[in-house]
Amino acid sequence: MRIYTRALIESEIVALANNLVALGAEIAAADEVNAVSVPRAAALHQNVPNPFNPSTTIHYDLPDDADVTVQIFDVGGRLLRTLVQGPQMAGSKSVLWDGRDNRGQLATSGVYFVRMRTAGFVQSRKIVLIK
User: Fold this and answer.
1) pLDDT tens digits for range 45-97
2) Of 8, 27, 39, 118, which is most buried, counting CB atoms within 10 Å of its CB?
3) What is the pLDDT of residues 103-126, one digit of tens each?
4) How far is Cα 75 from Cα 67, in angstroms, rounded to an integer?
């Protein structure tokens, strides 16, 4: 392999500099897109569909990496199902509830509550299962 060395002429220097600036702009634009996709605040959104049968999707947002718990409770406050429990990265998330409890039994028609909990944040939403 031969390596040749020579001095760059002015037009080559300008072209090289322009390419580096363009590359830097592309990287900055990509960073901006990534920054926009992270939610600004924690939130538990209304499930879709609601009412539902046989399953529903629960959407939630995490502005930072966090330990998250998403659980389903009946109207008496009894825990029916834990859908999410553990560390998650920041971002918009979703989880499916198939209408079953922690033992795999189908829940009856009625009103339930989904609760999302992280450090310093708790929010609940009413959801309705119909058969």
Assistant:
1) 999 999 999 999 999 999 999 999 999 999 999 999 999 999 999 999 999 99
2) 118
3) 999 999 999 999 999 999 999 999
4) 25
Supply the DSSP string of 40-74, one letter for each residue.
SS-EEPPPBSSSBSS-EEEEEEESS-EEEEEEEEE
Domain chopping of the chain, boundaries: 43-129
Cβ atoms of 97 and 114 within 8 Å: the answer is yes
| CA atoms of 20 and 26, how far apart (whole Å) | 10
Tokens linked to 44: 């538990």
Q: What 8-state DSSP symbol labels residue 102?
A: T
> What CATH number should be reported for the domain whose range is 43-129?
2.60.40.4070
CA-atom Rg of the chain in angstroms: 25
